[in-house]
Amino acid sequence: MKTVKIFHSILSRGGDMMHNKTAAGCCDLHTHSVFSDGSYTPLQIIDGAIAAGLSAVALTDHNTVDGLPDFLAAASGKPIDVVAGAEFSVDYNQRELHLLGLFIPPTQFGAVTALMEDVNRRKEASNVALVDSLCRAGYPLDYAAIKATTPNGRINRAHVARAMVEKGYVGSVSEAFDTLLSKSAGHYAEPKRLTVEEAVAFIRSIGAVPVLAHPFLNLTEQELVAFLRTDPGLCGMECYYATYDEATTVASLRIAEAFGLARSGGSDFHGTTKPDIRLGCGRGGLQVPYDCYLTLKRLAR
Q1: Using one digit for the tens of pLDDT, what is the confidence trace for 252-301?
Q2: Could you give the number of structural domains in the chain?
């Protein structure tokens, strides 16, 4: 009941919170590189963030920290704060959610890699089955050639989608996801994921900060509130996001404050994989206050 009272007490303040950008500038705490399904190298993300006038940027590749050494090295001596992170795919009541682990200490990169080894093995098997199914359906693809396009040999559906575009099977990556690579098309079987509890406990154990990513892409407002009432152990929630409209941003800010969660935000930049999303500003209107970076940094151990 206390949470509900707090929630209703801040309904009128969402607009003010949304526009609370400090003079220090903006940040982008959700980006992807070539080490997962993005098209930019870590160096290009650093240089792009500086060119965009950002004060801080995070690299949060899917289920891997392979790009973080290059990312930190690329930022050395440059006028920008950087955050070592990763995006974890997790299971909640047989639904996929995403968690960001922010401020991962470099000494813990090995621990993340060890945790993700089994997850990535399952993902590899799922990807092999996906390509085999597409081949049988009349869309031949070379799995080894797709793997060779990545710096660490790990692929996901975005890499398969690009190969399909190159072959002329679809006109764009988004078309591939909407048709042959959709979960309803029958070619893709989701691999088993970490549970929310497993991922949050791990992120906290290594001294990083667990943040719920883009909740309104996966949950309704009622489902989100119900999830947060289970007290999953989060420190923050992504309130500013590239595809959110103003009403969704305001709702996110209200809910985050009601549950005592720090605000986070990011573009979910993927480069050419999501060509309409620009680094730092999303579709043009995204502004993530630098204060989000500062607050989350204080929560890191």
Answers
A1: 999 999 999 999 999 999 999 899 999 999 999 999 999 999 999 999 97
A2: 1
By C-alpha distance, which of 295, 211, 203 is closest to 252? 211
Give the domain extent around 241: 2-10+26-113+195-299
Find, among 257, 262, 165, the residue nearest to 210 by Cα: 262
pTM for the full predicted model: 0.81
What are the pLDDT digits (tens) for 9-35?
Answer: 333 344 444 444 433 599 999 999 999
Helices (H) and strands (E) in the chain, counts: 12, 9
Percent of the chain with pLDDT over 90: 81
Which candidate, 234, 247, 123, places its Cα nearest to that of 188? 123
**Bridge partner list, 15:** none
Residue 13: CB atoms within 10 Å:
13
Q: Which two tokens stand for residue 213?
A: 């990513």
* Exposure string for 181-215, b = 16+ CB within 10 A, e = fewer: beeeeebbeebebbebeebbebbbebebbbbbbbb
**Which residue type, as a one-letter code, is found at position 221?**
E
| CATH number, domain with residue 202 | 3.20.20.140
Asked if 104 and 124 count as a contact pair (C-beta separation under 8 A), the reply is no
Query: Of 50, 46, 41, whose CA–CA distance to 74 is shortest?
Result: 46
177 token code pair: 């996801």
CA pair distance 270, 228, nearest whole angstrom: 28
- The whole-angstrom separation of Cα 41 and Cα 256 is 32
